[in-house]
Amino acid sequence: MSPAPDPAHEPAPAARSRRLLVTTLLAALAAWLALALWPRAGGEAAGPAGPPPSEEQAAAAEPAAAPAPEPAARPLPACVYGDEPAPRAALDDWAYTLLDTRFRLGADYAPTDLVSLPEALAAAVPDADGALAAAGHELRSVAVPALQALFADAEAAGVRLAVQSAYRSYAYQERTFAYWVEVDGYDVALRTSARPGHSEHQLGTAVDLRSRFGPPAWDLDDWAATPEGAWVAANAWRYGFVMSYPRGAEHESCYAYEPWHYRYVGRELAAAVQGANETPRAVLWRLAEEHREP
Length: 294
Ligand SMILES: [Zn+2]
Prior knowledge:
The chain has about 290 residues and is α+β, with helices and mostly antiparallel strands.
């Protein structure tokens, strides 16, 4: 409650006009100070002498503004089982083709530029006496120079690698999946082996690696804990290869950890995956969404 105004304290007219003058002067001083200080507080470009900021400039200067969400982009889908055509499945889109438990290649998807790996790798590592890849193993020519460089540099670092598996046709995948169902049962095979058309090996750009003098990498607890597996895990991206199914990312990659399975995506994309600290599937999904017709 405020007390009622006391008429005895009402100022005389002269005092009132003096107070009005002081108030006016103070207001003018405050306005001058505000104008004098504003450019420094608000930045030179936004000073009163310059043109008013455009809407774009104003938006760029707004620090708290979140980027507008892409209206068309859908989040990474859950790892459901399906048989939908893979996004970006043209032969020339090998780096971007997204394969998982839901998306697959057709039975007729077959690269036409496959190169025999025993010869190609023997050229890169001449002293390995043919122990680099078994006869019949092939990879697309787009990925071969990178694999040769990776093998040559590994060899120079004292790291002895070999290819366990490379291109697999649709028909081969049918036989492989049936084999793992036989060994592990359907539910385990579903999680660890790809159903026909769902394997990156059909792209002709994926390889399974192992230590040259060791067993198949999947017979070990963790091939990435061996000197060979650790070297590849640390360096593969420099050659354009990514580990498709990293540890602890099964919910995102849709497959159990496979420290031996590498897919060639080119150096630029491999570096992006390395920097993103995401699974290749998450990165490829985002790129497919950006590429998708609205
Ligand atoms: Zn593999």
